[in-house]
Amino acid sequence: MQTDWQRTSPLGGLYFLLRNVRGLVNLWPAIPAVIALEEWRGVILWVGVPVVLVWLVTVSFLHWWYFRFQYDDRGIQLRSGLLHRRRLTLEFDRVQEINLEQAVYFRPFQLWSLGLESAGSKGEEVHIPGVRRALADDVRGRFLRYKRGTPTAEAVKTEQAEAKPDYTLTLTPGELVRFGLMHNTLIYLAPIIGVLLSQSSGLTDVMRQWLESRPWVQWLAVVLKSSDWFFVAGLVAAILVLGLAVLYVLSILLAMARYWNYTLTVEGDRLHFQAGLFNRVSRGFKQHKLQCVVVRQGVLARCLNRYTLKLQQANDHGGNTDSAFIVPVVDAPTLQRIQALLDVEPPNWQRTMPVRMVWSVALYGTLCGVALGTAAWSTSALPVGWALLVYPVFAALAWGRWRRRRYSAGEQWVGFQSGLIGYQQVFMPNIKVQKLELSQGPVLRRHDAAELKVWSGARSESVGFVSRSRLAEIRDALLGQVGRHRGRWI
């Protein structure tokens, strides 16, 4: 039975408003230029900002007003668009997963966002914000009945209640603290804020006047004048450490908010996780959609003996982290257990030719040395011979990268490893390889070596300075497996 065309809750307009605001965030590089134009600041503040706000609210309301949907036992239909009207029909036989997400602004009203992923789509092809849980469960129940052929909703609920997951992982608050330490992206905001503050003399003056009026600042200035350079250096170092500590605390709080009560379940060939303190997310996919497995371990993660695991599907090129299927932090035994559940075979890592280091140092070291030598000669600040010191530096970097650079060609998976201090490992199923390219430039030809580039549905990886015959053997084996595969690809 098909439902009538219906709109989402009026509060669903908040989703469209925030989506439009997120689009304006892409204009942040223009902020320093706007701040630098002192004569236009008043016009921008009192005229431009209100106009933009009115425009955002109006457009968001119209997006909500023209957004309608209906569904039946075979699929779902959407109508959307202001000037460019769009009508989308998605049949359940093309749907791979149905995801639920509850944003923080929907939680007081018990509203959810319903997302449907189809085969070959990039992310969610259908996203319906601001619906009741009963409606979302109704759509999911019809989808399950269509896929499983069960006659009633009660049969589906009984089957789900009796099903027991093969594996369950729940992250403790301590593990989330480790994730916040491992992935502190807020540290990159410090130089951006510094640039913005330096472009506004008015804001700088206001901050300077506020600081000068503080008694503790005046006391600190007197202490600094009467102290030696050792004390001043220690104080500056303490302030920097305090600033880094604040950034890491904020990173930990963000990790807590995003992945609170993270629970991963593996049931047969289906993986599912749910998490979130304010925005609740429920997302899953089936193993046959898996295009590659990415394992990352940075510097701090190495100290903590933890890893981050990301599972990429078709057309998931890593740009949208909000829709990624990620296991934020795992230890070594847990990582091995999940890889075993995904049938990722243990890699047989092999290194590339050591001569790669020689060519890297010769090329990049010479270019940097010539640039530094020219600058030293033109300014007479340092002897030109100091430019030769770049070679030991580049030699150490080349050795570190070569030591981390490895590849593995197994019976079911092909693997690539790269990095310097930390590392990243990428594993692709052999049967999911889409494209192969074997190339040989002048330098590689000199050493009878080549470079092999491999594309899957999610990303591309390459390995060079390996014997051409060995890479040709790997290429032929991959092509043979892809040609013989008759199963599901996405």
Automatic annotation (TrEMBL):
UniProt keyword Ribosomal protein present: no
Keyword Membrane: yes
Alphabetical keyword list: Membrane, Transmembrane, Transmembrane helix
Membrane-traversing stretches: 12-31, 43-67, 186-204, 229-255, 357-378, 384-402
Domain YdbS-like PH: 64-140, 259-341, 402-477
InterPro entries xref list: UCP026631, YdbS-like_PH
Name of protein: YdbS-like PH domain-containing protein
Source organism (scientific name): Saccharospirillum salsuginis
Organism classification: Bacteria, Pseudomonadati, Pseudomonadota, Gammaproteobacteria, Oceanospirillales
